[in-house]
Design goal:
A 6-stranded antiparallel beta sheet has the order 2-1-13-12-11-8, with helices on both faces. A 4-stranded antiparallel beta sheet has the order 17-16-19-20, with no helix packed on it. The protein has a 3-stranded antiparallel beta sheet with strand order 3-5-4. The protein has helices spanning 2-21, 48-57, 93-105, 116-119, 128-131, 136-141, 182-196, 200-212, 227-238, 252-258, 343-355, and strands at 60-67, 70-76, 86-87, 217-219, 222-225, 242-243, 246-247, 274-275, 280-283, 286-291, 303-307, 311-316, 321-327, 370-373, 381-385, 391-395, 401-406, 412-415, 423-430, 433-440. The chain has 441 residues and is an alpha+beta fold. Strand 4 and strand 5 (222-225) form a beta hairpin. The termini are far apart.
Length: 441
């Protein structure tokens, strides 16, 4: 009896310590942040240098990996330091999405109300009856129906970013099309400011920064901060909007909806958050639904804030991980700033999976029916299918057709490289099967 009681006490103490370790939050002031050694997590420590070499070769400035709130890896490259400030780019959309939920919880707005209620009539050049269809929810989900075409106009060199009514033109009815449109998104910050009678800087500071110890500031729609502030935000999301007992967003339904498919067109998109593990995804500027997971190498429950030039916040609840990356574009094709580049994410998770001594195997749907090798390649690709291949089409990441090849029923073919190096999507039609794959050159 005494032994059983002793074992019960030990078990209770162990569970209490485990719960404490899984609920760590860094102090809101100062630079103290608890760490966990990679070896204690079963990492093959000799592989960390390979990860760092990869990150360095891809223009990375900062990298942080948290496990249950504690720092496992933290690395800065070149002249970048822990005190250096960098932009989140479109990864900051996720922060706006969270604050819209806070504003709704406070009764300042209703996401199902029309946007004109908060911005006034004529905030677009759509016909009045069409503008009246657009709600805040449509802005959150990228389904406003406004034109996202990347064509310069007198009002802006890039209307995808422009918030002038002249740039916000009608294309289809709200809620009938998904298209990544930063201009329509940007005005959510105006909605928050107008309804709260605060600037977006003030609202962000009082609702998020002061509660978490984050520091940073907005320049238009882009948030700027140190890497550790980015990590604090990722930790807040990992803990479902709660910071060390302080609940910043009580509306659990909103939080759920924010981090789950928000519409039927792009199942890998929530409220300004990208979602892994879904059966298909769409990309900015590409009106094609691509079968498979957004980031095949990553865990299915990963949610991500993704920004221009590979700014990343990856949150993985099942692993207790938060992964942060700041820096320049990791790919030459994105040097001009692809809005949401994702190829780097998959490469990164290849290295992260290898950190664990038992590597994680990943596949894409249809891998048993189709093989492509080598990939990456600078000299073209071999494609082998279980059945005859009818047609192969290659697209760039904006959906422009680069090449098309009709075959005569071969199951083994070779396709030539593109003119310029980069990342491409290839569509392979083989009988009743249609495969979409990423090609890297």
């Amino acid at each position: 009896m005494q032994i059983r009681t002793t074992l019960l006490i030990i078990a209770l103490i162990f569970n209490a310590l485990l719960a404490f370790s899984q609920n760590y939050f860094p102090p809101k002031t100062g630079t103290i942040w608890a760490t966990t050694s990679p070896a204690s997590l079963g990492f093959c420590t000799e592989r960390i240098d390979s990860l760092y070499n990869f990150l360095n070769s891809k223009g990375t400035k900062s990298f942080i990996l948290l496990q249950d709130g504690k720092i496992v890896l933290e690395k800065y490259f070149g002249t970048f330091t822990q005190d250096s400030i960098w932009y989140w780019a479109s990864a900051g959309k996720s922060l706006t999405g969270f604050m819209v939920g806070q504003a709704q919880e406070e009764g300042l707005l209703d996401i199902d109300s029309i946007t004109s209620k908060y911005l006034g009539l004529g905030w677009t050049t759509a016909p009045p009856e069409k503008e009246a269809l657009i709600t805040v929810r449509h802005q959150l989900t990228m389904t406003s129906g406004l034109d996202d075409t990347f064509i310069p106009t007198p009002a802006s060199s890039d209307p995808n970013l422009c918030t002038d009514p002249a740039c916000l033109t009608y294309k289809v009815d709200a809620g009938t099309r998904w298209a990544y449109h930063t201009g329509a998104y940007r005005l959510l910050q105006n909605v928050i400011a107008n309804t709260s009678n605060q600037t977006i800087q003030q609202f962000t500071k009082s609702r998020v920064l002061d509660h978490t110890g984050m520091t940073g500031f907005w320049v238009q729609d882009a948030f700027y901060s140190r890497a550790r502030s980015m990590a604090r935000y990722g930790l807040l999301i990992q803990r479902n909007g709660i910071w060390d007992g302080d609940t910043l967003l009580h509306d659990t339904q909103y939080f759920h909806d924010m981090t789950h498919p928000s519409q039927t067109f792009n199942k890998s998109y929530g409220y300004l958050w990208w979602l892994n593990g879904q059966p298909s995804y769409m990309l900015p500027g590409l009106q094609v639904m691509i079968p498979g997971k957004l980031i095949p190498n990553a865990p299915d429950d990963l949610i991500a804030a993704l920004g221009k030039n590979d700014q990343k916040i990856h949150v993985v609840p099942s692993k207790g991980w938060v992964v942060i990356r700041q820096g320049n574009s990791a790919s030459p094709i994105n040097a001009s700033g692809n809005a949401v580049p994702i190829v780097f994410d998959n490469q990164l998770w290849g290295y992260l999976n290898q950190l664990v001594c038992a590597p994680v195997a990943t596949t894409e749907p249809g891998d048993d029916l189709l093989q492509i090798w080598p990939n990456p390649s600078s000299n073209g690709w071999n494609i082998r299918s279980e059945g005859p291949i009818d047609r192969v089409e290659m697209y760039d990441l904006r959906g422009a057709l680069i090449s098309s090849l009709a075959t005569t029923g071969q199951s083994d073919i070779w396709i030539a490289p593109a003119r310029d190096a980069g990342v491409f999507m290839v569509k392979i039609v083989a009988g009743k099967n249609v495969f979409w794959r990423k090609l890297m050159q």
